[in-house]
Amino acid sequence: MWNEIDQHMQHWIREAGERIRDAFQTKLKIETKSSPSDLVTNVDREIEQFFIERIRRTYPTHHVLGEEGFGDQLEALDGTVWIIDPIDGTMNFVHQQRHFAISVGVFHDGVGMLGYIYDVAFDELYYAQKGKGAFLNGTPLPPLEKTTLDRSIISLNATWVTENRRIDPHVLAPLVKKARGTRSYGSAALEMAYIASGKLDAYITLRLSPWDIAGGMVIVEEVGGVVTNLYGEPLNMIEKSSVFVSKPGLHEEILAMIKR
After folding, report:
1. Which backbone phi and psi does 189 adopt, to 5 degrees?
2. Spatial distance between the Cα atoms of 132 and 128, rounded to a whole number of angstroms
3. Are 196 and 126 in contact (CB under 8 A)?
4. Residue 130 above 80 pLDDT?
5. Beta 153-156 vs 134-136: how paired, if at all?
6. CA neighbours closer than 13 Å in the CB half-sphere of residue 136
7. Which helix (H) or strand (E) holds 47?
């Protein structure tokens, strides 16, 4: 069953990417959601509907959890659930037409079975099936090696080390000082893909939804990465939470610093 779903999904996600690239030539309809920086476009909505129509037609007993609200209202991940972010990094999509991705995770009874992150602008598809490894455009991704903070590049939004409503900025500031470097790409999915492929070493954020991380979680864990909340606890994939993704070894080192 999972091989069959994987074949469908790889075809659908590339077709969706083609539709998004075609949309570069058209005028976007841009709206704000919870704040001026929380954007949604007609393309986000159309791509989510594209996936849902194909999933419902092919797998009518499956459920869908999608960012733009066209899926099901779920309180648990019972059965097979597709968790979809049609465009993760909408602000980048609007302003830069790069550094955004399609993110899809397929979960069965709460366990991530398939994960996909498609960097549309660069035609890079990261994907994984539980127990079968992770890949980038068909090339296997090697297992992640342990590393230390002073040799690491961490992805961290500057919001979390300046005055904000969620965390004392002094908690994470020491990480910035000790790390080899910091980055912020504006797409949780891509940041997780970059950890899985060795371009980044850790990613920390204080508030994400399940569709931001569902695909990346499967991919990262398949190469030995660690995905938890900021307290080191397993993520609840039905609600928003902090997210801490890292290479092994580094995860423990950063957790110890945060808890101090």
Report:
1. -60, -50
2. 7
3. yes
4. yes
5. unpaired
6. 18
7. helix 42-58
Specify the long-range contacts of residues 3-9, CB closer than 8 Å, at least 24 apart. Answer: 3/129, 5/59, 5/106, 5/114, 6/114, 6/127, 6/129, 8/54, 8/58, 9/104, 9/106, 9/114, 9/116, 9/127
d(CA 111, CA 241): 18
Of 21, 92, 87, the residue nearest 48 (C-alpha): 87
Mean of pLDDT values over 174-203: 95
- Amino acid type, 149: L
**Lowest-pLDDT range of 11-20, 27-36, 99-108:** 27-36
Q: Which residues contact 231 (CB under 8 A, 6 or more apart)?
A: 242
Residue range 90-124, pLDDT digits in tens: 889 988 999 999 999 999 999 999 999 999 999 99
How far apart CA 117 and CA 168 sit, in angstroms, is 32
